[in-house]
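User: Hey, quick favor. My workstation is busy. Could you predict this chain's structure for me?
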Amino acid sequence: MTYKKLLISAAFIAVPSAAFAGAMTFWVDLTDSNRPYSQFRMDSAKCDLQRQQVAQIEKIRSDNLSAQCNNRNQSACYGSLGNSLGSIFGKSEASSAYDTCMTAYGWELMRAPESGVHKLRLITGVEYEGEFKHGNFDGQGEYRWPNGQVYKGSFLNGDFSGFGVKSKNGVVTYEGYFKKDEYEGHGKMYLEDGTVIEGEFIKGKLTGTCNFKWLDGDVFDGACVANRRQGNGIVKFANGDLFQGHYEKGERTGRGVFKYASGEQFDGIFNDGIREGSGTLRDKGGAIIYKGKWVSDCPAKSIEAALKVNLTALAHC
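Assistant: No problem, here it is.
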């Protein structure tokens, strides 16, 4: 089967039948010469100038007619004056002028297939293969971008909605639920650096319970807001360390407990990822090594050198 080269339009075709309302429309290249998308945009800009000129004339006529028909039966009044304003009776003259201009340049507006399974290749390089309902992508389908990205899953009224998988060059980047083209519900993201993020998404952003697994083996479980760790959480480090406490904007901030694999433990205040404020450090036996103020991740007061020996928590102080 041969498929026409199509260019998807940002607009929706206006038709009287409710069955076709909201159907996607496409611009077809009638010259069949494989013209680039940049050519369409240049032609569209020229035609849009014509549309604006006609729209200005329409507005002047509309204002004049409104003044003449003031306080009268407007439907009958407009009809008696021979009015054909698109805002009342159908497609506006400005919109028609744009379409006529585009046709002169070799482009034709076409409605998407009404139903069934079809394959479309757009002049932008985008491809869609799957189900259509009421002139929209609807049901199961696959949407492919020219840069190697692919969405495969459920569509509703032309949008990614339901369960789907996104990938790039064969590597999965997200699997989970969508709503109106955005991540919505439970999902799992796979980042280029090997990090795997799983949790709840709202309007495309990780918000709610979340889990991070880094390539080096570190794991975070807790709460997220707008793609950042926010609220209480626990990090289990691959080296055996463990942190449990509060996060702000992705960093340890507020009260928390850091347990070192060596057995030492810090209980106190963190700010922007480091110990800052009041806190207590204990050795692996539970004895207090230091209790008081911390500045820049270290005790504010000097500690005897003998106490620092072999203490992981103070190795950099």
